[in-house]
Write a structure and sequence with these properties.
By secondary structure, this protein is of the alpha+beta class. The chain has one domain: CheC-like (Chemotaxis protein chec, 3-Layer(aba) Sandwich), CATH 3.40.1550. Helix content is 44%, strand content 30%. The chain is built from six helices and seven strands, in the order αβαββααββαββα. Strands 1, 2, 3, 4, 5, 6 and 7 form a seven-stranded antiparallel β-sheet that branches. α1 crosses α4.
C-alpha cells in the first residue's frame, strides 16, 4: 500500500495524538466494564482513500462501526474489528453468560458501540485540546461487511474524501490481545487544518 506524501514528523505527531487518545480511552473503557484494560497504538499511516480501499480487500467479513464527524474539522471515522476479536471481547466482558463468545447478541452491539463512542470520543477530545478545533461525532452505526466495501460505501456518501488516516490499535485485557483499526476519513481541508494546529504542517 503506497503511503501518501507526509513527513515522519507529521506521522509522529499523529501517532502521539493516537497514543494519548488510546490511554484516555483505555481508562474510560476500564471503568465501563470494570476490568483492567490497556490500549496502545501499534501503527499510524496516511494513505490515499482509493489506495486504502483497493488494498484492504478482506477474505473475511469484518464488523465495522462508523460515525460522521461534524464541526470545524469534518469527515467520517470507521472502526473495524475482526469478528473473532469481537467474540473474544464479549467473552471477556461477559464471562458468565451462556453462549458468550459464540454469537453476537443485541447487548454485544451496545458494548461495541460504547467502545467506539469511548475511542472516538478520546481521539476527538485530545484533538480538540491540542488544536482548539470543534469535533462532534454522530451516533455509531454498525455494519458487517468487507472493509474495502465499508470504505466504498462511505466514499459514495462523500465523494470528496481523498485521504485516510489509518491507525492500528491493540486492546489488552488480561492475557488477551485484541487488534482493531481506526480509520479517520477527513474532508480534504481537515487533515492540513489539524496538522497546522498541532504544529506539524
Amino acid at each position: 500500500m503506497e503511503q501518501a506524501s507526509f513527513s515522519q514528523i507529521q506521522l509522529d505527531a499523529l501517532k502521539e495524538v493516537g497514543n494519548i487518545s488510546a490511554g484516555n480511552a483505555a481508562t474510560a473503557f476500564s471503568q465501563f466494564v470494570g476490568r483492567k484494560i490497556n490500549m496502545t497504538v501499534a501503527h499510524v499511516s496516511i494513505f490515499s482513500i482509493l489506495e486504502l480501499e483497493k488494498n484492504l480487500e478482506d477474505q473475511d467479513v469484518k464488523i465495522g462501526l462508523y460515525q460522521k464527524i461534524l464541526g470545524q474539522a469534518s469527515g467520517s471515522i470507521l472502526v473495524v474489528f475482526p469478528k473473532q476479536s469481537v467474540l473474544d471481547l464479549v467473552e471477556l466482558v461477559f464471562p458468565d453468560r451462556e453462549g458468550s463468545g459464540k454469537m453476537l447478541e443485541i447487548q454485544d452491539e451496545d458494548l461495541l458501540k460504547e467502545l467506539v463512542n469511548i475511542t472516538s470520543g478520546a481521539y476527538f477530545t485530545t484533538l480538540a485540546k491540542m488544536t482548539n478545533l470543534f469535533f462532534m461525532p454522530s451516533v455509531p452505526h454498525l455494519t458487517i461487511d468487507f472493509t474495502n466495501l465499508m470504505i466504498h460505501h462511505l466514499l459514495k456518501e462523500n465523494p470528496k474524501l481523498t485521504q485516510a488516516l489509518f491507525v492500528l490499535n491493540e486492546l489488552n485485557i488480561e492475557e488477551t490481545r485484541i487488534s482493531f483499526q481506526v480509520i479517520l476519513l477527513p474532508n480534504p481541508e481537515t487533515l492540513p487544518l489539524i496538522l497546522t494546529a498541532i504544529g506539524a504542517s
